[in-house]
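TICKET #2291
ISSUE: user wants both folds in one file
ATTACHMENT 1:
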Amino acid sequence: MTVNTGPATDAGVDRRARGARPAAPARGDRLPPPPRERRPLLAAFAVLLIVGGAAVAGLLALRADARVPVLVAARDIGAGEEITADALGTTPVASEGTLLVPASQQELVVGQYARRPVSAGQLLDTTMLTRLSTLTDGKVAVGAALAAGRVPASGLQPGDIVQLVRVGDGQGEVVVPDALVSSTVQAGDSAGTSVTTATLIVDEDAGASVAGLAAESRLAVVLVERGTPVTAEEG
């Protein structure tokens, strides 16, 4: 007996064909991998960071080399006070072309006198120093802020001899006939008005009254004798 296996064979083939995986493409049909461009860019960026960091480090080193130690007040120094070694400290700054005093000149500064008050932490410059003692026994230094019209139009300078006058009610009274101007600073107040701040050397018994008049804005200055600036006397 002849058995017909044709349809059964075809069905088996169909079932195997439906479950079979598609054939892999030939090796020559694969897409080429994308070019690797990120690594060269990252390498170049890393080189730039290294070079930039080296440049910044070099610049900081150059700036550090340009800083030199200068003198600074280690504590408050009063006007006319003799400067001692314990009143001085040092700090590095870029001081080229300034009047700041190098730390190497500390021995020359010790024994000089403060021409005006110096606050702790303030850098010392040559305009703050004098070899002349303005505060002798029986003398005191008084600070006064003098508005325009209370000082001569030519201004004041260290070494001037002045009269200190109490003003008010259209009258004036001389309270100190021969005060010494130790230092002056010209500035402006919040309203833009010119103000002269002066340190005045007066007799000890007149110090309190002069300070009171200055605080009440009732003090005026009359120039008696134009003094020689301390810098010229020091030679």
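ATTACHMENT 2:
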Amino acid sequence: MGEYKPPFTITNEILSYVSSISEKIGRITATNNLEAKPHLRKNNKIKSIHSSLKIEASSLTLGQVRDVINGRAVLGEQKEIQEVKNAYAAYERLSQIDPYNIRHLKQFHGIMTKYLVEESGDFRSGEEGVFNGDQCIFMAPPAQFVPQLMEKLFFWMNAARKDVHPLILSSVFHYEFVFIHPFSDGNGRMARLWHTAILSKWKPIFEYIPIESQVEKFQDEYYEAIAKCHVAGESTIFIEFMLSQIDAILDEISVQISEENEHLSEEVKKLLEVMEYDIPYKSKALMEKLGLKSREGFRRNYLHPAIELNLIRMTIPDKPNSRNQRYIKI
């Protein structure tokens, strides 16, 4: 196998973003322990899944994606509901991925496309193009070359991981993967999952950072950067784009955490402490756990603020005063 090195240039802009991102990751890790905020982690994982599927034209809302993940009935296309279930199964096992192992790539494509794609877990046998909506951005390399191209890409990754910063390497892989388009379906979802997996091996906190939601906000620019790289014959523009989005999402995460720390009252904190995740509680049971007598005080100071902050949800939101109402920590 001839040695292959994906073409890209490390610019001053790229180096500046690498420095900025590294600094922000260090600051978030040092001052805010995401491990101690499981609701933030879960909410961000749901955001990642919703955004990655929305980029692929899924019509499900964030709330519907959350309901599918939490096992509730959702009215929607069965294909889209299955995509959510598959994506959640894959993201739940993110820490188990060896992103430098091509067998893991196929295995997780099998998880991501279960029941949806005939060639699930296998490289494509037919010809494919890359589309942004109805517009064909470019035709992918012929199917017969895919196995060799992917082997070369993984061979390069394993050789380069010692010398190329993970922030750069993950972006190069993302672009090269999209260019090769190795699967008959699910390439975009897999590219974004693998990008996160590479970064998570560098800094585990990336498992809980919804890079996909940032990309989805700038979807047109995402496809434009890919198209420009196809013309330029190298991935520099795409690396700069992805690093700019990662830098921006870290600012958002910092604000999210600091706002939560500032705005959570002692009452809400106490309520969250006595509740287990995804377990329904009656208000009476929660009052007993907190040692409270006044139902009105419980609702005003504990329950309603937590619901408004989207930390707790009602099982029957359309009937807030139902005698069958339960409250679930999310």
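RESOLUTION: both attachments delivered.
EXTRA DETAIL ON ATTACHMENT 2: Residues 236-263 form the longest helix (28 residues).
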